[in-house]
Design brief:
This protein is an alpha+beta fold. It has 3 helices and 4 strands. The protein has helices at residues 31-51, 55-62, 72-78, and strands at residues 2-10, 13-17, 25-28, 65-70. The protein has a 4-stranded mixed β-sheet with strand order 3-2-1-4. 14% of the residues are buried.
Amino acid sequence: MDIKLILEKSSTGYSAFSENLPGLVTAGENIDEVKENFKEVLEMQADYLEEKGKNKESEELRNASVTYYLDLKTFFEYY
């Protein structure tokens, strides 16, 4: 599974979401913090799926590769 994580600048730092994983969002003061927080969100979701007996989906999340994208406005502000 490939996860496209979109990072956006917010008034308090950065936020992130994935269009292919609705409801899994996170935020942080900087991009590195957002990346770490999203790893935790993925782990919690994988645990939840496992508890519900959805072991295949859980394993897919645990082995997923995450690609980070900055929205255009954030890209120009960051660089």
